[in-house]
Design goal:
The structure holds two protein chains of two kinds. Chain A contains no helices and eleven strands. In chain A, 0% of the residues lie in helices and 57% in strands. Chain A is mostly beta strands. In chain A, strands 2, 4, 5, 9, 10 and 11 form a six-stranded mixed β-sheet that branches. In chain B, strands 2, 4, 5, 6, 9, 10 and 11 form a seven-stranded mixed β-sheet that branches. Helices cover 0% and strands 55% of the residues of chain B. Classes of the chains: A mainly beta, B mainly beta. Chains A and B meet through β4, β5 and β10 of A and β5, β9 and β10 of B.
């Protein structure tokens, strides 16, 4: 099964509200990333958090990582209609799996103007 | 230039056709990837090239044949595909073994939307 599972599968909010997405994984990781995908397009890297980090910020994005619970969350503050997209977490195992990103199922975020 | 360029954007092919998907990057990245993505699903890794050598093949059927002519180019040759192979095919690149944690950040192209009739 997929390394990462995401929750919720879909999220619908109003502009200005905050959006929180969660990701869980099953094995030890080197790092965890979040990507955004606009409909039918390629993925765009948002943020990377290393296994020894607990929280990271980038603009309106805040990512947390809890390695004891094997989970991560992505918070988007003050959401905008342009944030409407699918969001995926992706884990890197390293070693012989170098280069292999394993994606979660994704959260579809809809931000209404 | 942080762009990965994929051509064509759309491709329709019959089950007996032979076609190729192309991917190009000029970021000096030494790792390149092919993914397949079905609607409302995450990308599934197909192949990884590291320093122009195939390093990961995720048990992909032989009707998909990757090729890495040089460090900037990646091709995916398609032959005798099935309708269930219809999907968005994504190419990505990453810096490679050097570059610290950033080596794991992948840069994606916009994809080729493939329809097999």
């Amino acid at each position: 099964s997929q390394q990462g599972e995401e929750d919720p599968q879909a999220l619908s909010i109003q502009e200005g509200e905050n959006a929180t997405m969660n990701c869980s994984y099953k094995t030890s990781i080197n790092n965890l990333q979040w990507y955004r995908q606009n409909s039918g397009r390629g993925l765009v890297h948002l943020i990377l958090i290393r296994s020894n980090e607990r929280e990271k910020h980038s603009g309106r994005l805040r990512v947390t990582l809890d390695t004891s619970k094997k989970s991560s969350s992505l918070l988007i503050t003050a959401s905008r209609a342009a944030d409407t997209a699918s969001y995926f977490c992706a884990t890197t195992l390293g070693g012989t799996s170098y280069g292999k990103l394993t994606f979660g199922q994704g959260t579809i975020l809809t931000v209404h103007p | 230039d942080t762009e990965v360029t994929q051509t064509p954007k759309h491709l329709v092919m019959g089950m007996t056709n032979k076609k190729s998907l192309k991917c190009e990057q000029h970021m000096g990245h030494r790792a390149m990837y092919w993914y397949k993505q079905k609607a409302k699903k995450p990308p599934e890794l197909m192949f990884v090239y590291s320093y122009e050598k195939l390093s990961i093949n995720e048990s992909v059927p032989s009707r998909f044949s990757p090729e890495c002519p040089n460090s900037s180019l990646l091709n995916l040759h398609l032959h005798a595909l099935q309708p269930e192979d219809s999907a968005l095919y994504l190419c990505a690149s990453s810096p490679g073994l050097a570059g610290g944690p950033a080596k794991n950040i992948q840069y994606f192209g916009a994809g080729t939307r493939l329809s097999v009739l």
